[in-house]
Amino acid sequence: MEALVRKVQQRVRKAREEMDQWDDLNTRLLSQFSNAAAVISRLQALGEDKNYGPLHGVPNIREDLIGNQMEVLEFIFVKIRETLEKFNGVVKALNKALRDTKQMVRGGSALTAKQMQLQVGILPSIAECLNGFQTLCKMHHAEFTLKSSVFSLLTWKSSSSDIAVLRQLLVDQPNIPRDEGGDQTVWTKVCERSTLQSAVGSETSGVPEPLTLQVLVEYLHIREVLEGEWCGGDTP
Question: pLDDT band at 183, cuts 50/70/90?
Fold first, then answer.
């Protein structure tokens, strides 16, 4: 039994190597978002004649400048999609590691419920290892879903107020710490809203629809309320 527990723990530690990429990818994503937001802001300024001054008479200057910035924005969006795919790769790797670990446990002699809950010394039980591993997988999948939803709402037409909300979500969302579990209460509420939001789309295409900006804004309110409760303050 002790040997099996240690094998499960080794699988979890190996999976953490995949998780170590998360912080670096998140930093990259925030930088790419800032770059995209700056270009979108320039596009909005370039769309107003009053900003050209004496250059207004230069032939095709408006079209040329806007076209150039659109190319830059599309390049940034390509890089963002590549980063999101790397996040998805981490999620897939964690899910595969979880499946392999469960298969390893089932592959030996069948364990009773009591054996699954048995603790050897200070080691956690097999059930605790598997449950913790599954929680990590769900957390990473939930955060990846939120990141994807945020960027699905970012376009060259996004207003400055929308960009500010999306930026706050990326900066303030419960990014998964290296050594802690994360904010399950917030994620439960967000995922419940996401599930209701995407129920129809899932039935027809098998792929959940992205979260709407309204749902993401509600997430911010939920987080503020919960932080007030945790800190002992008054809720809004």
Answer: very low
